[in-house]
Amino acid sequence: MRHLPARTIRRRVVGSLTAVLLCAAGLTTPAAGLTTPTAARDTADPGVKLPDGLALTPPMGFNNWNSTHCRAEFDEAMVKGIADIFVEKGLKDAGYEYVNLDDCWALPQRDANGKLVPDPARFPNGIKAVADYVHSKGLKLGIYTSAGTKTCNSAGFPGALGHERSDAQQFADWGVDYLKYDNCNNQGVDAKQRYIAMRDALRAASETTGRPIVYSICEWGENKPWEWAADVGHLWRTTGDISDSWGSMVSIMKQNLPLAKYAGPGRWNDPDMLEVGNGGMTDTEYRTHFSMWSIMAAPLLIGSDLRKASPETFEILGNEEVIAVDQDPLGRQGEVVSSRGGRWVVAKEMKDGSRAVALFNETGTAQSVSTTAKAVGLPEADAYTLRDLWEHKSYNTAGRIAATVPAHGTVLLRVSADGKWAHQPPAVELGLDGGLFVEAGEPTKVTSKVTNLGRTPAQRVSVALGAPSGWAVKATSPTTARSLRTGKTLATSWTVTAPAGTGPGAYDVRLKATYRSPHGARAEKTLPLTAQVVVAPPAGNSPLSGLPWLSATNGWGPVERDTSNGDRGLGDGRPITIGGKVYAKGLGAHAESSVEYYTGAACEKVTAQVGVDDETIVKGTIAFEIWADGRKTASTGVLTNAMPAQELSADVTGAQVVRLVVTDGGDGIDSDHGDWAEATLTC
Fold first, then answer.
1. Which end of the chain has fewer CB atoms surrounding its CB within 10 Å, N or C?
2. Catalytic residue among 103, 177, 182, 629
3. Do 488 and 472 contact (CB within 8 A), yes or no?
4. Dihedral sign from CA coordinates of 125, 128, 131, 133
5. pLDDT at 41 over 60
6. Which three-class secondary structure state does DSSP give residue 394?
């Protein structure tokens, strides 16, 4: 059985088996016995090619699918409610414009004249009435259909293949402003022909109604639309469907980042909708999601039900400084400057000459991530203004751009050679050497660092380390410095003791520095961190499936102990099986996956038999890696379902933390079930 993100399942396991196989394989010839519809056979008319002045910045708005799927709560009241919230909560003013309907808005059958019929239970007043309401709020309405005989839902709602002109005219007559055009049940008809046919139909409808429609091509990146769709649609999906998990989001980000050269005004790479606020990730992870989508100049389509959203969700979605990065009129997509050991630097050129810079930490522990003004493309200057877009504070830097970034976090900056840097306090980087791993009842020594990155000195510097109530924190070296020049560091030694009996797990700590600029202005910097209360690893050979981990992330469902990944629920795996051989012990993962263990510099080796689990049947391409304190110590290269298990062994001598990673092999996470069979830690 194949295990795909939820919308991918509902998209691809529908219709006849022939249609599903053709769709999944991305074939470009009609299935046997089927006739190519006339509309899809039409060749492109050079007179209707894009660009046409629409979507000059990435579209922003809402789509219901991620939060409602096809459930009954998706209806007219919801759509109107979202439009109201856009206005009431300031999202419209922040740039959100489109309120988009996804699948399930229509009845399964067309009427006697071949027209689409809105579901009267969901939309009793029809789509035009909804469009009129949305327009009355100064917003725009989007709708959904598929470039196939039916849409992706198993109920079999009508698709537009062979009905392009009629359906496009209906959409325009209703007042629709945006079309998401999916890829299900496409009968093997060439993708370019199908999507060009709808482009031409939308243009014809626009000419008769005067209503332009933004055209979103949703063919999942199967036929590399970034190479051919710039004159066909305004945006194109580059990947399969996103799901509300860290692993899914990171995998999609990695697939979209290399496509920067194809993006620009009126032609955007689309890594799918936002999951911010749906509950499957932490707020830190959602800030990363929003930051990375913005620096990639991705469409920002909210996928959570805003009627139930938390204040934190609105704070993330409404950050106008981050939105300005996404909406910059130059239209550049950010490009990777560096990516080592899970520490990413991505930079985006802005129209005013500044650079947006994302310092992204993929790992499960805090990491220092750094670059320079030169590396991100800024001209040489005495100093630079550095604006933190989540803190909403400005600093000056002599040229180094750096931050200690929490696990799964992103620091998003805007850096300018604008000559105004001297008015800002110097930037400082806070950090703790080696992380904070504490055994209950035992004092742990750590060193904090406050480093001046600025051109001007940081004066009257003071640092404090805060821990949970009942913990003992004592500084054993000075916590203040009269002045720190550029590049100089205040290093402070501490002992931290968790009370005896404190249970293993993560506990919040904060490192805080205060200082003054040469002009006397007070500045403050706080670094939220995690202290891990740990248990020393046992001596000898221990199955990793029986040891507590520090963190575990997975691309689909949870990481499983002593079974395969299975499906989305905990405990739904099968016996670990690779190449027909069954293993009693191990970890069942799904790319993108990362599992971290505390080894406390007391262990020597990790060994495992690794491979794609047999439950994927014929699919799955993955690679395995073992990391020791940010250093890759062993890897396999890409493995497939057809390969037997491979032995993987890594020297982890002296490492505090060991990380087991499963990557997607570079082609997305479809069916990427990876087993760490007989995974063993030797200490």
1. N
2. 182
3. no
4. negative
5. no
6. strand
List, in order, residues 6 or more apart from 489 with CB less than 8 Å away.
Answer: 449, 450, 451, 452
Comparing 13 with 311, the larger pLDDT belongs to: 311
Cα distances (Å, whole numbers) of residue 375 to 149, 295, 338, 348: 50, 17, 9, 12
- Please, what's the b/e burial string for 136-148 (b: 16 or more CB within 10 A of its CB; e: otherwise)? ebebbbbbbbbbb
- Within 10 A of 423 (CB to CB), how many other CB atoms are there? 12
Residue 126 Rama label (left phi>0; alpha psi -120 to 50; beta): left
463-483 mean pLDDT: 98
Cα–Cα distance measured from residue 421 to residue 382, given in angstroms and rounded to the nearest whole number: 9
Q: With 0-12 CB in 10 A as exposed, 13-18 as middle and 19+ as buried, what is 447?
A: middle
Annotation says 132 is catalytic: no
Q: What are the tens digits of pLDDT across the range 84-101?
A: 999 999 999 999 999 999
Work out the widest C-alpha separation in the chain, in whole angstroms. Answer: 84
Calpha distance 514→258 (Å, rounded): 40
Closest C-alpha among 159, 165, 200 to residue 181:
159
What's the whole-number mean pLDDT along residues 58-72?
97
Instruction: In whole angstroms, give the CA distance from residue 332 to residue 335.
Output: 9
Please indicate whether residue 241 is annotated as part of the active site. yes
Query: What is the distance between the alpha carbons of residues 250 and 672, in angstroms, rounded to a whole number?
Result: 14
Active-site residue, from 200, 241, 270, 675: 241
Q: How far apart are CA 1 and CA 24, in angstroms?
A: 14
The per-residue pLDDT for 670 is: 84
Read off the pTM: 0.89
- Name the pairing type of β-strands 355-361 and 393-397: unpaired
Do 388 and 527 form a contact (C-beta atoms < 8 A)?
Answer: no
For residues 492 and 447, the answer to whether their CB atoms sit within 8 Å is yes
Sheet of 178-182, strand order: 268-270, 235-237, 214-217, 178-182, 140-146, 98-100, 60-63, 300-302
- Is residue 81 within 8 Å of 307, Cβ to Cβ? yes
Percent share of the chain, pLDDT over 90: 88
- Read off the pLDDT of residues 257-298 as tens digits, 9 standing for 90 and up: 999 999 999 999 999 999 999 999 999 999 999 999 999 999
Burial 540-564 (b: 16+ CB within 10 A, else e): eebbbbebebbbbbbbbbbbbbbbb
The tens digit of pLDDT for each residue in 580-613 reads 999 999 999 999 999 999 999 999 999 999 999 9
Supply the mean pLDDT for the chain.
92
Pair type for strands 551-553 and 593-598: antiparallel
Taking each helix axis as running N to C, give the angle between helix 76-88 and helix 126-136, from 0 to 180 degrees, rounded to the nearest 10.
Answer: 10
Task: Quick: pLDDT tens for 350-405.
Answer: 999 999 999 999 998 899 999 999 999 999 999 999 999 999 999 999 999 999 99
